[in-house]
Structure formats: C-alpha cells, structure tokens
Design brief:
This protein is of the alpha+beta class and 593 residues long. The chain has 19 helices and 23 strands.
Length: 593
C-alpha cells in the first residue's frame, strides 16, 4: 500500500452554527435598541411633550391674591374709627427691565433705577441692585400708595408690576383707641373690637390666575380664571365720638392732676343700654400701639376689677327698701365705731360723736357703721342675692376681650368680716361697666337694661344688621328704685357728692373710696376713688361713672372723682341737648331730733 493519505481539517467547519447564533443575537439587540429608541421618541413626542408643555405653562402662569377688605369700625354717627386702605408692593422681572429703553436707547436696569428714584423718593443706587439680574420676580419697594403706583406706571418701565394688599388705618387716632384695638404687623388682631369681632371683620381673599407673555403682559385667551374676594362686615358701635373725645381729655387731665396709675369714665344711655363713652387713661393710638406699655393697649374699663367701696352702698339701700325693711326717713343712732358679735370692729372714715341720722342721712354721709346697722336686717343670702341681681360676679354680655366678671364669692364662703364689708363695697369686686350698671338700673325704675357697645354689623353692601342684646330684667320694685334715687339725689345736694353738682341739672349719685388690692402678695396698696351718678335726676337720661386707680394726690371719691364727673356731665347735657331741670327736688330728711 502507498503511503496513508493525510486528511486536512477545514477551518470553521464546525463553527457555522456559532456564527448563526451570533448573528441572531446581533439582530435581536438591534431590534431591541430600535424598540427602545422608538419608545423614547414616542415618549418625547407624547408624554414628555405634555410634561414640557405643563412646565412651560406653569412658568407662564401667575397666581395673584385679591385681598379682601377688612370691615370698618364706625362710631355711632358714622365716624370711621378703623378702616382698611390699599397699599402696593412694587416687583420687577429683572430680565425684562434689562430691555428698558428711553427714546430708543437701551438704558436697562440703571436707567430704570434713575427713573424710579423720583416717585419712590430714594436714591438710584439703592434701587439698582434690586433691578439688575435674571430673576423673574424680585421685590423692589413696599407700602406704596395708589398715587405713587400711578406715578410709577406712567414711566412705562418694562417688567415692573405691583401687588396690592391692605393695611389697617385708624383715622380717629386715640379716640376710642382702647376699645377699637389694633392689628399686628402680619394682620392678626391683638386687642379690643378688632379681636372680639375678628370673624365678622375679616373677609376672604380672592385669587386671580393668568398666563403672562414674555414681557409680563396678560395673554387674553390664555388659561385665566378669577375667584373674587369677599369683603368683611363692618361694625357700628354705640360710641359718641365727640363725647368720647371730651371724656378722654378730661379723665387724662384728672389722672395727671391726682397722680393716678389709671382712670376711666363710662357713660351709658339709661333707656337703651348703649355705651356712649368708655374713656381710658392712659389711652392708646392704634396706629402706633408700641408707644405705650402693654397694659395700656386694652381697655381697663372691662378688664380691671376693683372694690367699689361706698358706691356699693346703693345696693344695700335698694335691697332694704325693696324688702320693706326700712324707710328713707327711718331713724338711726350712728356711732363712729361698731363692734360685731363675732368681735370684728368697723369704723367710719373719720371719728365723730353719735349721730342721729335717718336712713337717707346714712347714705348721704356714706357711713359704714350706719350701713351695717341698717343692713343687718338683711340675711347673708339676701345680701348675696341682691349683689348678684345687680350684676356683680356676672359678665356684662358685651364680651369684650379679657373682660372680667368681677368677684362675688358665694355667701357660704364669706368669713366673719366679709359678711359685713360686702354691704359697703369691700370683699366684692367689679369692673367700671358693672358699677355704672348699678346706678343705671336704679335710675331706670329698677329694671336692668344690658349694656351694649356694638349696635350691629354692616354688610359690604351697607345694610346694617342689628346686634341682639339681652332682655331687660327687673331687679327691684319701681317704688324702691324711686326711693333710692331720691336718697342718692340727697348725696349730691347735701352730702359727700357736692362736687358732682352740675349747674342747671339735678344730679343723683354716690361717692366711693376703697382700698385697692395690691398687684402682688395680697393685701392692699393705695386706694380707688370713684363717683357714679345720673342726670337729670327727675328723668334720668344718662349714667356716668368716674374711677381713679391709686391716686397719690387726693384719693377720696368726693374730691378726686366727683369734680371730673361734674365737668363731663355738663358737657354731655349740652352735647346731647338735654333740657335743664325745672322742678326742685323733694328730698327725705337726713337727720332727726
């Protein structure tokens, strides 16, 4: 045999299947890439284009608050005590202001700063940093009046716009400022009627949304919608602004004269219950409340309590007469000191020999011992009951912020001294409105008419909705009220209240001097001097209370409070055009022999 033939192995013979596999994989990957790319193209052209459109729209959309106007607070004659005025915040689109031209010449942000300096009354160098840059919204100035904004608009500066907002204004300044209250810098009510009636005064802001063009202009057919603002309701108060102003001046002068910590005057219309005046001293101007201390920014007339002292003897007298336990001319022998069975001792304001006084004379001389001698005819429960019926320990119904109800402890909690002192106004406390209510009730034939400070709310259209007050309540009989009023007229005509007399008018009233509770640590610190009265006594129209807290230069009610009552009451009679008295009073005898 010939040599053995050698077989040559051909390269790749067994590799053909692998080549086909690789080609298939490449084809599959290519298809996958094509699908992904196609999907991405679809996403860009479809879904992403929607997102891009939405993003572009959001960049063009502007949302603007349409501020609601806060309701006005008005005096009884329509005088504006609180109002809302428009102010504007100037803002800039810095990219647009860069294109500002004057007479065809590009002057940009610096040229805009120079033009704005005059109406804004400032230096261009201060405005320029706010105008230059690439921000689409940047604040430039705040607090612009409508006149200033109109002057800015006339400049036709590209990229400038204004945002309107409201600020609170108090055109009458300090007149009734302690009653009106004020708002904080962020618009939150801080005191007074602004706080008490915030829900009614506060409106609901609206909203405007619109598309703007490249220059900031509104696109007419763009995505625009508006929700209108709803303005707040106004308040019609019962305050007589002329009387309020006069009383504020008078009581501030008296406060300074007597070096008192604080003082107040309340004037109430007896028939309607309307508070015509509630004057605090010191007072506050709501336009700048920070100029006075925090305790002077509210109204102490409603928030402070004090022991009424001898003015509360009216309650004891009315209760005894109502129960038929005494008569105005009933005779008493009154010592300057009296010792109770439990050992407690009481005395009058000054030493004196035994006096032969009628019950009317006891009230006229403001005798503590005489009041106890007569008042002991009342049970402790009766003493408490009449104080309660006259309003002590209960809110007035005005609902002034932080208003106190006063202090009247249950008679079962009275100690061995308090059961006597409540009869002459110690161991019980009230605010100035409550003490005014006592004599107003007596002067109204024994019927209590709830006090009212707000007459009603005023809708944005101008319609007044009356404020519902509480129902009148009889406290004592008309006979007892008339007898008490006659005795109180004797206090002013012949007794401790002579300084409260008003020329041409018959006045009935009562002086009060009480120890003032110390602010800290218990006990007493200083005195409260007061006078409450009504006039004309034969047909009472108004009740007035005057209170001075901790006077250091004379602290008796007859000398510190009664004179300012006379002054303000005389002005009130002339201002309200109430005719003078024509008949002389028939006063009960003060003494007996």
């Amino acid at each position: 045999m010939g040599p053995r033939a050698t077989r040559v192995k051909k390269k790749g013979g067994r590799g053909k299947p692998n080549l086909r596999l690789r080609m298939a994989l490449i084809a599959a990957l290519s298809i996958l890439v094509l699908l992904v790319t196609s999907g991405r193209l679809i996403s860009i052209q479809g879904m992403d284009s929607m997102k891009l459109a939405e993003k572009a729209l959001s960049n063009r959309l502007v949302t603007k608050t349409l501020p609601a106007s806060r309701g006005q607070i008005l005096a009884s004659d329509g005088t504006v005590l609180a109002d809302s005025v428009s102010r504007y915040q100037l803002v800039v689109d810095q990219q647009n202001v860069a294109q500002y031209k004057v007479d065809g010449k590009l002057v940009g942000a610096w040229g805009a700063a120079e033009a704005l300096a005059k109406p804004l009354d400032t230096d261009p160098g201060l405005l320029y940093p706010k105008l230059v840059g690439d921000k689409r919204w940047n604040p430039v100035a705040k607090g612009l009046t409508s006149e200033t904004w109109r002057a800015v608009k006339k400049l036709n500066i590209l990229g400038l716009s204004a945002e309107e907002y409201a600020v609170r204004s108090y055109p009458s300044g300090a007149v009734a400022g302690n009653l009106v209250g004020f708002l904080s810098s962020d618009g939150q009510p801080q005191a007074g009627l602004e706080m008490a009636y915030n829900d009614q005064l506060n409106g609901r802001d609206g909203q405007q949304q619109y598309e703007r063009g490249a220059r900031g202009e509104i696109i007419p057919l763009g995505d625009n919608n508006t929700r209108n603002a709803i303005d707040g309701k106004g308040l019609q108060t019962t305050i007589d602004p002329a009387l309020q102003y006069y009383a504020q001046q008078a009581i501030e002068e008296q406060r300074k004269k007597n070096e008192a910590e604080s003082a107040s005057i309340v004037i109430k219309d007896i028939e309607t219950g309307k508070i015509l005046t509630a004057a605090d001293a010191p007072s506050v101007d709501p336009n700048s409340p920070g100029k006075v201390g925090g305790t002077d920014r509210g109204s102490r007339i409603f928030t402070d309590v004090f022991e009424p002292g001898s003015t509360a003897k009216m309650v004891t007298a009315a209760a005894l007469l109502d129960q038929g336990l005494v008569t105005p001319e009933q005779e008493f022998t009154v010592p300057d000191k009296w010792k109770a069975p439990n050992g407690e001792e009481f005395r009058d304001s000054h030493p004196h020999p035994d006096e032969k006084l009628t019950f009317a004379g006891i009230l006229s001389e403001s005798s503590n011992t005489g009041t106890i001698l007569a008042g002991n005819k009342l049970s402790e429960e009766q003493r408490y009951g009449y104080l309660k019926k006259f309003g002590f320990g209960s809110p007035t119904g005005i609902e002034f912020p932080a208003e106190t109800s006063g202090i009247l402890h249950p008679y079962k909690d009275w100690d061995g001294r308090t059961k006597y002192t409540v009869m002459f106004g110690q161991g019980v406390a009230a605010n100035a409105v409550q003490t005014t209510d006592v004599i107003a009730t007596i002067a109204n034939g024994g019927v209590h008419v709830p006090s009212k400070l707000v007459d009603g709310t005023v809708s944005p259209s101008g319609k007044t909705i009356p404020n519902q007050a509480g129902e009148p309540q009889r406290v004592i009989s008309k006979k007892a009220a008339d007898q008490t009023l006659s005795m109180l007229e004797g206090v002013v005509a012949e007794g401790t209240g002579k300084s409260a007399q008003v020329s041409g008018y018959r006045v009935a009233g009562k002086t009060g001097t009480a120890q003032a509770p110390a602010a800290e640590g218990g006990g007493y610190d200083g005195y409260t001097a007061s006078f409450v009265g009504v006039l004309p006594a034969e047909d009472p129209q108004i009740a007035i209370s005057v209170t001075l807290q901790r006077p250091r230069n004379g602290y008796y009610g007859g000398s510190a409070a009664a004179p300012v009552f006379s002054d303000v009451a005389g002005f009130a009679m002339r201002h309200l055009k109430i005719p003078p008295s024509t008949a002389d009073p028939q006063l009960p005898a003060r003494e007996w022999k």
